[in-house]
Design a protein that fits this description.
Elements: H1 4-17, E1 23-31, E2 34-41, H2 70-89, H3 113-117, E3 121-125, H4 128-136, E4 140-141, H5 149-159, E5 165-169, H6 172-179, H7 182-201, E6 207-209, E7 230-232, H8 247-251, H9 263-270
Parallel strand pairs: 3-4, 3-5
Antiparallel strand pairs: 1-2, 6-7
Helix pairs in contact: 5-7, 6-7
Length: 279
């Protein structure tokens, strides 16, 4: 994981030297090793396979479109040329001397959170990608100083009265899981445990604690394991009597296993935000 300042330097070097016929390319540093690549031009194609092989020691994958036609062929050419030029431009850099491209798309039009759930939502996240996703669905992105879990808790306290729903994202559990660093991942979980009393002091109608996926340190990658879920709603919950929030206890919990799309309706129900259906 290269530091952000090196990502900034390498992005600037790419921007100064990249030149692919028929398209304007801009590389914007994000955080750590991530940067966003923007393509502007005619006959572009969003449905491209990643060039990231997702495993160390392997060569980048060739540019491949999930489709056929003029735009698909043109995008394969553009991505191939971009990758080749990036390898030449960065060949003398250490420790990062190449780019891997993944997550191709065009600007999406997504349903807005307020329209779907009738809630004014805010988002608190250190990592820029999650702030961007939150902005795309119409959440207020809450700016704050610092980058620790405690700093996020302070931002939550300040924004609490101005929102009906607040999404607070903790990134480093995932990052340390991918690094295989079990001890550091456990420490971040302990940091979050320490702010739970501050969250409960705000008296939320519903508190949800979960993740978007599992990242076991043993595997050093995302995995198929179900994500644990805690739902705390003092006025409406039926406690299941389990002593701790762990993956094994969640497997025995009264919520059972649910699909992610069921989570918000369940939270709205416990917050008494749903209209009665029927007589």
């Amino acid at each position: 994981r290269i530091p952000t300042d090196l990502c900034v330097k390498l992005s600037a070097k790419l921007n100064a030297a990249l030149s692919v016929k028929g398209v304007e390319i801009a590389v914007t540093p994000e955080m750590d090793y991530r940067a966003a690549v923007r393509f502007r031009g005619a006959d572009l194609f969003a449905h491209m396979a990643d060039t990231d092989p997702q495993k160390e020691g392997l060569k980048p994958l060739p540019a491949k479109a999930h489709g056929e036609g003029k735009a698909a062929a043109n995008m394969e050419r553009i991505v191939s040329e971009l990758a080749a030029q990036a390898g030449t431009i960065l060949k003398d850099e250490k420790p990062a001397n190449m780019i891997l491209l993944r997550g191709f798309d065009q600007p999406p039009t997504l349903p807005q959170f307020a329209d779907v759930y009738r809630l004014k939502a805010g988002a608190i996240a250190v990592y820029p990608m999650y702030r961007g996703i939150s902005r795309l669905v119409g959440m207020d992105v809450i700016a704050f100083e610092g980058s620790s879990v405690a700093d996020e808790a302070t931002a939550l306290e300040k924004a609490w009265k101005d929102h009906d729903f607040i999404y607070l994202h903790v990134k480093k559990t995932d990052a340390y899981g991918e690094d295989g660093n079990h001890a550091a991942k456990a420490h971040v979980i302990e940091e979050f445990d320490a702010i739970v009393p501050r969250i409960l002091a705000l008296k939320p109608d519903v508190l949800l604690v979960t993740g978007d996926h599992s990242t076991p340190a043993k595997l050093k990658s995302h995995s198929w394991h179900p994500s644990p879920l805690l739902l705390h709603a003092p006025a409406t919950c039926r406690p299941d009597g389990l002593p701790r929030f762990t993956e094994m206890n969640c497997a025995r919990g009264c919520l059972g296993r649910i699909e992610a799309v069921e989570l918000m309706p369940l939270a709205l129900a416990h917050a008494l935000r749903l209209d009665k259906y029927g007589a």
